[in-house]
Structures are given as C-alpha cells and as structure tokens.
Amino acid sequence: MPGHHRVHFADVPSTPSSTFSDATLASSPGPATPQSLLSTPLPSKHYNTPSPSYYATLPLPGAPVQVHPVLACTPGFGAPLTWDLAELVESVLVRTSTALRPLSEHLVAEAATVPKLASITIVCDRLPWSITVAPKQDAPWAAPYVTVGDVLFTLYRTLRLGVTAAELATVDPASHQRVHAAYVKRCERVQHRDQRAAEMNKGAKRVDFLCDARMFKGLSAVPEGNPAKGLAPGVVWRLHTSRP
Questions:
Q1: In principle, which of 55, 155, 160, 215 could form an S-S bond with 145, CB 3.0–4.6 Å?
Q2: Which helix (H) or strand (E) segment is 105 a member of?
C-alpha cells in the first residue's frame, strides 16, 4: 500500500513513447541545435475510490474528463507543482497551504484523471512531439490506469531523449539557434567539470526545445482531442510551461 514517504524515480526502467507531431516551432520560443550536437480542483475523494477491473482507453460519452488537481493548469496560477523540467523528477515540490513538500508515494499512485484512463496524450506548443503516457507496470506506483507518477515520469524520460537529425531538419535557423543556446546553458548549470563535459558530449536533448520556458505549469484539456489521430476529447492534454 503506497504511503506518504518520499518517492524515488531513479530506478524505474525507461520506456518513453512519443510521436513527431504536426506542430511547428517557428512561432514558439523553443527551437533547435546544430548537427554537431547530435550524439478547477477535484475533491480528493475522486482519487481514493476502489479500482475497477477495466479502464477505458476513451472517456465515456457525456462524461467530461478531469485531470488530477496537482497536474491541472489553473489560469493565472499554473499547477501546485514546482518543477524545472530540466531537473530530476525527485526535485518536484508540491505547494500546500503551509509549505512546499516533496512528492509522496501516495500522491504518485493516484489516478491522473477522472474517469481513469488507460492512456493519455500530451502536446506542447514548444515541442514538435506528442507524448503518449501509459501505465508503467514495473513502477512502484503501478496501476492498470495512468497515474500521477506515470505522467511525471514519462515527461521526464521523454524530454531526456536526444534530438535526431530528422527532428533537427524540421527546425528553422532561428529556432535552431535558440535550442542550441538552451543546450549550452543547461550544460553550464552542471557544476562538476567532468560531468559537464560528459553532458556536452551527449548533445542536445528534447528538453532544450523548451528553451527558457522550463517550469511546469500544468496540463489543460485540448477540447477537440485530435480527430486526425483518432484521439477523442479528454484523452489529449496540453502541457503549459513558463520561465523560472
């Protein structure tokens, strides 16, 4: 049974899933890297109900899907999570009425949506990929539906993937320069010289496409879903970010 101890993500096997989307980076402040670099809160009772034996991939007709309050983007406020997406998931802090607290085992095991779903897709205006979040059955928070832990872990792992030549080829020169600058700044934040050099040698990562807008500000529903890909409303969520 999950408790309220601090959760650790480091040992969870990595199997992120993302798809190159139709989004372009020309209008976003997050872009590319040179070829040389290649190498409304819900009541808590909704999240503590007994788990049914089956979770639909699509929401039920007429049943609006809501995201967990800790992940929800509230206009003018963001989400009650403090997280620089360039940092480890363990660095996430949850704002309460009295303090900032680390993620707990209990929180990451709670369902990411109501009703509970077998998968969700995350898009972001700053990223040319859509990110598919599915349950990680080998994780400490494993469940037959998408949990808060699945969302945070998948975002972290997907944004740590290296940028490929094909992905760089879709980016305009100005965006290319901004991603390169973000890559250099990210590496410069590594304090130990040997680790910094190792990070530089790995090249640009997807998180660098966020440029300076690295702070997690929550998810909001994409009302229409993505009909072209057969994704119904309630399954597609937009990632919001901001500058630190």
A1: 55
A2: helix 105-108
Q: Please give the helix or strand (H or E) that residue 131 lies within, else none.
A: strand 129-133
Whether 133 shows a pLDDT value over 60: the answer reads: yes
Q: What's the rounded Cα separation, in Å, for the pair 16 and 218?
A: 19
Q: How far apart are CA 128 and CA 105, in angstroms?
A: 32
Cα(182)–Cα(69) distance, integer angstroms: 30
CA separation for the pair 111, 168 (Å, rounded): 35
Tokens of 145: 């539906």
**Sequence letter at residue 138:** D
Helix (H, G, I), strand (E, B) or coil at 93: strand
Report d(CA 234, CA 223) in Å as an integer: 7
Q: How many CA atoms lie within 13 Å of 230's alpha carbon, on the beta-carbon side? A: 1
For residues 202-230, average pLDDT: 95
**Could you tell me the two tokens for 125?**
């205006």
- pLDDT of 51 reads 37
The residues, ordered by sequence, that sit 6+ positions from 75 with a Cβ below 8 Å of its Cβ are: none
Contacts of 118 by beta carbon, 8 Å cutoff, 6+ apart = 55, 56, 57, 134, 135, 144, 145, 146
CB neighbours of 15 closer than 8 A, spacing ≥ 6? Answer: 136, 157
For the purposes of burial, counting CB atoms within 10 Å of the CB of 83, is it exposed (0-12), middle (13-18) or buried (19 or more)?
A: buried
Q: What is the pLDDT of residues 18-67, one digit of tens each?
A: 554 443 333 333 333 333 333 333 333 344 433 333 345 555 555 789 99
